[in-house]
Amino acid sequence: MIINRIVNLAHRCFEDQDLKELLKNSGIAFILKIAGIVVGYCFTVIVTRHYGAEAWGVFSICLMFLQISGMFGRLGMDIALLRFTSEFMVSEDKYLIPQVFKKSLLLTLSVSSVLSFILFLFANYIAIKVFHNSILILPLKLVSIFVIPFVVLWITREVIRGLKKIAIYMLLQQLGVFALASVILVFSLMFLKINYPYLIPILSYGISIIIFAFFALFLCRKYLMAFSLYVKPVLKQISYKYILSVSLPLLFSSVLVFIMGWTDTFMIGVFKTTRDVGIYNVVLKLSTLISIVLFSINSIAAPKFAEFWGRKDLKGLAKVARQSARLIFWMSLPILLVFVFFSKQILLIFGKDFIVASSALVILSLGQFVNAIVGSVGYILMMTGKEKTMQNIIFGGTFINVVLNACLIPYYGINGAAIASAISLVFINIVPLFLVKKYYGFYTINII
Question: For this UniProt entry, which segments traverse the membrane (predicted)?
Answer without folding.
Answer: 30-52, 58-84, 105-128, 134-155, 167-192, 198-219, 240-262, 282-306, 327-348, 354-381, 393-412, 418-436
